[in-house]
Amino acid sequence: MWKSKVKINVNEQPIELDEQANIEQLLTFLDSPLKGSAIAVNQKIISRSEWANYKLQENDQVSLFQAIAGG
Amino acid sequence: MLTDAEMLRYSRHLLLEDVGELGQKDLKNGKVLIIGMGGLGSPAALYLAAAGVGSIVIADFDCLEVSNLQRQIGYNTGDIGGDKVALMKQRMQQINPEVRVRSINTEMTKEQLLMELMMVNLVLDCTDNMASRQMINSACVDAKVPLIVGAAIRFEGQLMFFDHSQEDSACYHCLFPNEDEQALNCSNSGVIGPVVGTIGTMQALEAIKHITGLPSGIKNKLKLFDGKTLEWQTFVINKDAQCSVCGNPK
Q: Which CATH superfamily is domain A5-66 in?
């Protein structure tokens, strides 16, 4: 069955996801390691405890970045 | 009252409406702990000493290596092999004999750190590894001491300010909850000197603003610095109610 899609941007690259996709599904789709990542949607950090329930919306600007420890 | 010598030394602060004599007295009464005397800690410690922060505790257990000198601007080639905190203390006192500097050259346990936190009003995390960052965050949450976190690798910098004296403050663990992860560091990824220097300098700036009572624009925010484009991105960090360090997890 045909599923409708949403268009989002991840680190300024356009990506199409299934509607209702959450952040965990996005990371799986990107083949990105879950560990060491932080995610912001529209400049707001989304806590890891919310990733499974946070549904991405059309035009969301997603920023994906890693913890850095250097100093 | 400031002495005549202090009036001269800090005259460029005294000209600023936002600092002035009152702000300079606040700085004189300021007590800051800076953990890590590398690429972040070098400019942070030098600027806070120069600014007249009255009591500064510096902590690091490393000796200076030749590969540090590309970015750790507090040190000289002739210092190689010496204790970083001893070298930095000497350098800070050469810059400003008016400030008291105490050095800690052992790796602190959380209990030791909590003791140190009783004697300061602000902490700068200038360390180079995730385990230290998580421990410092947890201790600052417990002790309700404000924490300014800096980090840098490659051409990238990260800057955060968690004011743990405020009940609703987020914490480092809300943002990066994996305590055992192998986060990127300078020795495995490389770093360009002025990027880590920029972040350490920003930590000093935020510290001076905090001590003098100026509002910070970065509390509960993550600032990402891109050394290639010179752009800063800003992200809001909300307290995670489920955070195992600062929240009330069910």
A: Beta-grasp domain (3.10.20.30)
